[in-house]
Amino acid sequence: MFADRVLSGMRPTGNLHLGHYHGVLKNWVELQQQHECLFFVADWHALTTHYDSPEIIEKNVWDMVIDWLAAGVDPSQATLFIQSKVPSHAELYMLLSMMTPLGWLERVPTYKDQQEKLTEKDLSTHGFLGYPLLQSADILIYRANRVPVGEDQAPHIEFTREICRRFNHIYGKEIGFEEKAQAAIKKLGSKRSKLYNELRTRFQEQGDESALAQARSLLDEQQNLSMGDQERLFGYLEGGGKMILCEPDTLLTEASRMPGLDGQKMSKSYNNTISLREDADSVNKKIRTMPTDPARVRRSDPGDPAKCPVWQFHMVYSDDKTREWVQQGCKNAEIGCLDCKSPLIELIQAEQAPMHERARKYEEDPTLVRNIIADGCERANQLAEETMRDIREAMGLSYS
Ligand code: TRP
Ligand code: SF4
C-alpha cells in the first residue's frame, strides 16, 4: 500500500563512539542498501532534556553528521536531514496532540523512568511529556513502516502505532465510505471483486494474515483504479475507513555487545569510550592502559579472560584462532597482557582507518556537510508535505 520506508533518528547529545558504531550505524549502513532510508538529527528531542544547554546541541549536530558519514552512511543512498529544518514535524506534533489522551503519554514507561534517573534536571515539562508524541510525528509524517531502534525505544514505537490507529479511526471515515468502497470493488471486474471479497472475509472472520497480504497485492496490481479508490479498498480490508497514516513496525536493533574500556557498557557517562574517529595513537594508548584481570599482577601469574575487559574486546573483534590463543596464553601465563592487547589495537585501528579516510574531506570542508544536509532537508520537506496535505484535509484544515 505505502512504499517500504525506513526512518530513524538520533539525538545530538555527544560524541559518537564505537558503541554507536556497532549498535546502530553498522545497521543503518546495511539498511540503506536494501530500502529507502531517512536518517535525521533529532535536535528538538535533545532539547526536551537539554533545554538549558543549547550550545551542546549546536556543536554536536555537525560532528554527529560527520560521524555518520565516516561510518559509511551514504548520502547518495539515504536521505540525511535535521528535524528542526522540517518544521512540519512540529505542525503534525501539535495536530496529533489534539487527539492524544494524556493518560497514554503518562503511561509510557520511559517517562517516569527518565524523570527518576535524571534527577539533576527538572523534567516535569510539557515538552518532556510529549517526547514520544514528537517521535510519533517524526515517523508518521513520512509514512515510514520500519523503524530501527534499540529495545529502550520500543515502547515509543508501540505508542506511535496506537496514535496511528486512533488517527485513522477518527479521521479516516468518509461520508458514504461503505457505498464508495462497494462501488470501487465493482470496478475491479467480476473475478477480482469476488476474490477481493473472499480474501476480506477470510481476514476479517478468521484473522488470516496471508489473505490480507494476498488482497493487498491484488490491489497493488490494479492500474485502472484511482488512488482514492485504491486507498479505500486498502482501508476496507481491515474494516475501517481510509488509511491516512501508516502503522510502523519496530526493527529491533540487537543490543550492542560493545564493552567499554573498563568492562562496563561503553557509554559517555562512564567515561570509558573510544570515539568513532579517535586517532590511532590515542587508541593505542587507551588499549595499552586498559585494566586487565586484577589477579594477574606479574606476567608469570596465570589469568582468567572471564575476569578481564580485554577479553570482551576479543569477543567483538577477534577470530576463533586468536581467541584460542588468548585463552591458552592467559590461563598458562604464556603471553603478557600487552601481547594480548596488540592484535586488538591493530583490529580497531583497521576498522577506523576507512572512517578517518571518509571523514577527512568533510572535516576539511564543512560546506560539503552543509550541502548534504540541505539536499536531505529539501527532500524530507517534500515527502512530509505529501502526508501533511492528506492530514490537513482529513482534519478539516484545507479550505481554499
Ligand atoms: N528517541 C530516539 C532515541 O533517543 C531518537 C528519535 C527521535 C527517533 N525520533 C525518532 C528514533 C524517530 C526513531 C524514529 O534514540
Ligand atoms: Fe586479560 Fe589478555 Fe591479560 Fe588475560 S592476557 S588478563 S585476557 S589482557
- Large-scale geometry: elongated
What's the assembly state of these chains?
single chain
* Domain module count: 3
Could you give me the name of the CATH homologous superfamily of the largest domain? HUPs
Give the integer mean of the pLDDT values.
Answer: 94
Q: Structural class per helix/strand content?
A: mainly alpha
Largest sheet: 3 strands, parallel
Give a list of the ligands: tryptophan, iron/sulfur cluster
Task: Using brief descriptors, characterize the structure shown.
400 residues; mainly alpha; Rossmann fold; Tyrosyl-Transfer RNA Synthetase; three-stranded parallel sheet; two-stranded parallel sheet; 5 strands; 59% helix; elongated; binds tryptophan; binds iron/sulfur cluster
Describe the protein in words.
Helix 1 links the parallel strand 1 and strand 2. By secondary structure, the protein is mainly α. Helix 2 (43-50) packs antiparallel against helix 3. It contains 18 helices and five strands. The strands form two sheets. Strands 1-2-3 form a three-stranded parallel sheet. The protein has a two-stranded parallel sheet with strand order 4-5. The protein has three domains: 5-172 and 250-257 and 366-394, Rossmann fold (3-Layer(aba) Sandwich); 177-237, no CATH class; 277-363, Tyrosyl-Transfer RNA Synthetase (Orthogonal Bundle). Residues 7-11, 42, 45, 135, 138-139, 147, 149, 153 line the site of tryptophan (TRP).
